[in-house]
Specification:
Blueprint lengths: L2 H23 L1 H31 L2 H14 L3 H28 L1 H8 L5 H15 L5 H13 L4 H28 L4 H39 L9 H19 L1 H19 L4 H19 L4 H19 L3 H28 L1 H8 L4 H10 L2 H17 L3 H26 L1 H27 L4 H28 L8 H25 L2 H6 L2 H8 L6
Length: 539
């Protein structure tokens, strides 16, 4: 893997990781402010919002980064600038259109999500959906700027703007919800509406950061224009045709997870109702599945998302330059690193499900059971993100659409039968089967069209599985011992349980990787440099 890819990956990984962690930890005070009923309302609005955001941006950051990376490799820098200037208007227009559709269709969406014919409840859900829809106006425009920077292999603006956006959003969300509930004695619906409107405020903060970066880096961009070969004169029509071809797979990949969640929103309550389970109970279970536990499960996937974002421009460059050796080397290391970091995190999350759920929310048997069953699916989320990004990088995005549509079909066809059989865990199993089917198709296509051999990844993957199993066995024994003295039903005691067990598990895992030299194969001399800085190894 090239140093530039690793550097870009590190920057985006750090930014995405911080952003995801901020998005995780705010749920603790937010849950205390609005409770379970508030998170149910929040969940009803955010799943459709995520889908609309993906449609409004049309996969712009990755599609634009791929487009610009391609023409920059050919030293045709003016093509990317031309796209950027015209794209500003297009993105503003798409954002406004999606905002109007979501805002005006809020009542229809609310009716589709619940099986209860209660006009007041439908109005509450519609109000929250309308509040979050305002963010659609500016997010597409913001995504265009991020894509432009990423296409120039400049990951800093995207990373910093993500963190700033998340910080401002969370501060406004928590402060707004707290003031409404505890100072103004307002309604729960108003508090959650303010919390969802925070997405718009966070977007404004991110946009300001991106404008600042543009001002600082424009002289460098202008210098590149002076080096432009000028041998390619591509019209806007041809340009957008190419972008659309790129963006459709990116849209589908971006909304993969929300689409799976949307299927649960549309079918879960109705399936549970057909079994005679009251709507109040099914809504709580749905909130635990789609909001509380999902927030925790998505954390191990952070690295895979960061890799998929940086992977596309780099693989595209190698693909355009026909440097197949470099491309295969990048693919090889990327698969291994994602497995190395995601698998133990997912397994550890499943093992410590009870104290982790108590720590972030409150002690709840159902919540812990759902998290325990859901945690391993993080591995599938990660693999899907990476394999889909690889297909886009080698220009076989048509199969990305095929694999996702097949995965969604599996989820859609099995969801209700499995929910009726296993309740909440049935929805999780349907998600796992859907993602598994999509990943299998992606891997087959990668092998056929890139000639990539998985033998080394399989061997290293088996070693990673063995190390994870050893870590799991030791940590499980330690967990059993600690819970003789500490209770996972207590928030304070859960902190000690999680910290001790997680530290022990991570220590065992990385010790095994270090002694076997696996960590050096994956990260090279950077491991020694890090150990020297931590004074754990002699210079």
């Amino acid at each position: 893997m090239s140093s530039k890819l690793l550097r870009g990956t590190f920057i985006l990984t750090l930014g995405t990781f911080i952003s995801k962690f901020l998005g995780l930890f705010y749920v603790i005070p937010f849950y205390q402010i609005v409770g379970s009923e508030g998170t149910i309302l929040y969940n009803y609005s955010y799943v459709p919002y995520t889908i609309f955001i993906s449609i409004a941006t049309a996969g712009v950051p990755l599609a634009v980064s791929k487009f610009i990376s391609k023409y920059n490799a050919l030293e045709e820098y003016a093509v990317g600038r031309k796209l950027f200037k015209s794209g500003i208007i297009i993105m503003l227009a798409s954002g406004i259109v999606c905002f109007l559709i979501m805002y005006l269709g809020a009542t229809t969406l609310a009716a589709a999500f619940t099986s209860v014919d209660d006009p007041e409840k439908l109005q509450d859900i519609a109000t929250v959906i309308k509040a979050v829809s305002f963010a659609l106006i500016i997010i597409p425009f913001m995504s265009l700027i991020r894509g432009y920077f990423q296409g120039h292999q400049s990951m800093g603006p995207s990373a910093v703007s993500q963190v700033v956006e998340q910080l401002i959003r969370i501060m406004f969300l928590l402060a707004g919800a707290f003031i409404v509930m505890n100072v103004m004695n307002g309604s729960l619906v108003t508090a959650v509406s303010v919390a969802t409107f925070a997405a718009f405020i966070g977007g404004l903060g991110s946009l300001f950061v991106l404008f600042w970066y543009w001002y600082k880096r424009k002289p460098y961009m202008d210098e590149l224009l002076e080096q432009d070969k000028g041998t390619i004169d591509i019209s806007l029509k041809e340009m957008y045709k190419e972008i659309i071809v790129y963006s459709i797979p990116f849209v589908l990949v971006g909304i993969a997870n929300p689409l799976f969640q949307l299927i649960d929103l549309l079918t879960f309550n109705r399936a549970m109702d057909s079994m005679g389970i009251p709507i109040e109970e099914s809504e709580i279970a749905l909130s635990i599945l789609n909001y509380q536990t999902h927030k925790l499960v998505i954390i191990p996937v952070t690295l895979a998302i960061a890799f998929s974002m940086t992977l596309v421009p780099s693989i595209t460059k190698a693909f355009v330059e026909e440097d197949r050796l470099s491309m295969k080397r990048q693919l090889n290391q990327t698969f291994q690193v994602v497995l190395f970091l995601t698998l133990p995190a997912a397994v550890g999350l499943a093992l410590l499900a009870e104290p982790i759920y108590t720590l972030f929310y409150e002690y709840d048997v159902l919540g812990a059971d759902v998290l325990r069953a859901y945690a391993p699916v993080a591995m599938l989320f990660a693999l899907y993100s990476v394999t889909a990004a690889i297909l886009q990088g080698i220009n076989e995005q048509r199969f990305t659409m095929l694999s996702l549509l097949f995965g969604i079909l599996v989820k859609l066809s099995l969801n209700i039968p499995l929910i009726k059989w296993m309740e909440t865990e049935g929805a999780i199993l349907a998600t796992a089967l859907g993602y598994g089917a999509a990943i299998l198709i992606n891997l087959i296509v990668i092998k056929i069209f890139s000639g990539y051999q998985f033998r080394l990844v399989v061997r290293r993957g088996l070693l990673i599985i063995i190390f994870t199993a050893i870590m799991l066995a030791v940590t499980a024994a330690m967990y059993k011992l600690i819970t003789l003295f500490l209770s996972p039903e207590s928030n304070i005691q859960s902190i000690f349980i999680v910290v001790i067990c997680a530290a022990a598990g991570a220590g065992i895992y990385f010790y095994l990787a270090y002694k076997s030299k696996l960590v050096f194969f994956l990260f090279g001399d950077r491991v020694d440099n890090l150990l020297r800085k931590l004074k754990l190894k002699r210079a």
